[in-house]
Amino acid sequence: MSTFSRRRFLEETSKLAAGAGLSTIPISESMDIQKKADANDKIGIGLIGCNNMGWSNLREHLLLPEVECIALCDIDDAVLQKRAAEVQTLTGKKPQIYKDFRRLLENKQVSAVIIGTPDHWHCLNMVYACEAGKDVYVEKPLANSIEECNIMVAAAKRYNRIVQVGQWQRSGPHWQSAIEYVQSGKLGKISLVKNWLYYTSHKELTPVNDTPPPPGVDYDMWLGPAPRRAFNANRFHGKWRYFWDYGGGIMSDWGVHLLDMAFNGMKSNTPKSVMSTGGKFSFPNSAMQTPDNQFTTYEFDDYAITWEHVVGSTPGYYGNNYCGVAFVGKNGTLVVDRDKWRLLPEIENAQFLLPAMPEQKGSNKDLSLHVKNFVDCIKSRKKPVCDVETARNVAVNAHLGNIALKTGRKMYWDNANNKFVNDKEANNHITPIYNNSWKIPRVL
Ligand SMILES: NC(=O)c1ccc[n+]([C@@H]2O[C@H](COP(=O)([O-])OP(=O)(O)OC[C@H]3O[C@@H](n4cnc5c(N)ncnc54)[C@H](O)[C@@H]3O)[C@@H](O)[C@H]2O)c1
Q: Core-most of 210, 294, 297, 344, by most CB within 10 Å?
C-alpha cells in the first residue's frame, strides 16, 4: 500500500472510530501525486457515477486523443458492468472498476475525475478528489446546498485544482454571441430577463411502495450523507432530483443552466431580493416532492430576472422550444435557447429599432467544446470557462429560489457575509445535516 493510500486508510479508519470530521492530506503530498500524473502523456480519467450524464461526459472526453479512461465507479453493479463493457468496446481497454469512490481516488493513474453522481454527493466526491490531487469535472448544480458550494470553492483553491462544472452552455458559441449582443447595449435598456422550462420528462411519478434495494446496489453508498430511509424506486436513478434530500427539483436542475446565461448577460448575480411561489399544480398526486410549477423573481435595481418551470406542457414563450432565455430591451427582445438565438425588434414610427439579423444557429457541439476546454485547462492550468466560483454563484441563486419557496417569504441574501438578512429560519437552510457517519468536509 502506498504512503498515500495508507494514510487515507488510517484516516478513514480513525474517522469512523472517532466519528471525527474529514482531516486533510498535506498539500505537498497531493502535489506529488499531480506531478506523477503530469509525467504521463495521457490524462487518465476516472468516472464516478456512470449512469446517465456521467457517461455522456466520459464519452465526450474519450473523443479527445490525450484522454484515456482508467477507472469507473458506481454503487450499482448493473450500471458499472454495462459501462465497463462499453468502455472496452470504445477504447479496447478494460477500465478498473470500483464501488467506493475513495478507492478510485487512490489510483495514481487517475489524474482527473468526472463526477456524475446525484447532487447530494457532489461536495464529498469533489472535495475528496481535490484532496487526492485530481482535477475535477463535476456536474451541475455544483451542490445541493449553499454551504457545500462554498466548501467546494474553498477546496479547489486550497488544493489548486482545475475544476470545470457541467454548465456546458458556457462553452456554446451561439450562447456566447447572444451574450455579447446583450452586452453591446443594442437592445437598449433591459427591464426583464425571462427564463423558462416547459417540460414533459418524468411528467408524473406514480407513487410506488418501498422495496429492498435491487441486487448489486450498495444502497448505503447511494444514500451517503442523506437521511436514512427505505429504498424507493421513485427516488433512485434519474428521479432523485425531485426529492429534497438529493436535489433541488427543476429550480436547481435546469435553473442553473439558464439562469447562468441570464446573470452572465446582465453581468450581475447578486439580486437585491428573491421571491418564489409554486407547488404540485400540474400533478397533485405525483410522488415528486419538489414543485412541478415554480415561479421565482430575482429583483435588481432596475430590472428583474424571472425563472419559471411547468411540468406537463411543452410550448414555451415566443414560439420557442421547451426552454429559453429572453432579454427584454427597449429596442427589442433577444430570445435564445439551446438551438439558436434571434431578435424580435420593437417598431416605432414604422421603423424597426434594431437592424435586421438572421437567426443565429447553435453548433450542437457545446458539450464537446466544454469538455475540450476542461482538458485544455488541465494542461495549461488556466481557469476553465465554468469554474467552481461561477458555478457556485448561480447554484446559490437557484437555492435562494428554493429557500424563498420553502419559507414563503421575500429573501434578502447578504452574499458578502454568506447569510440571509435577519432571517433565522432561512439561515437554517444554508448548511445541510449530514447523516450515516458522513461529515460535511472542512477545508482548512
Ligand atoms: N449538464 C447536463 O446537461 C446534465 C444533464 C443531466 C444530468 N446532469 C447532472 O448529472 C448528475 C447525475 O445526474 P443523472 O441524470 O446522470 O443521474 P443518474 O441517477 O442517472 O446517475 C447517477 C449515477 O450515480 C451513481 N451513484 C450514486 N451515488 C454514488 C456514489 N456514492 N458513488 C458512485 N456512484 C454513485 C448512481 O448509481 C447512478 O448510476 C446530476 O448532478 C445532474 O444534475 C447534468
A: 294
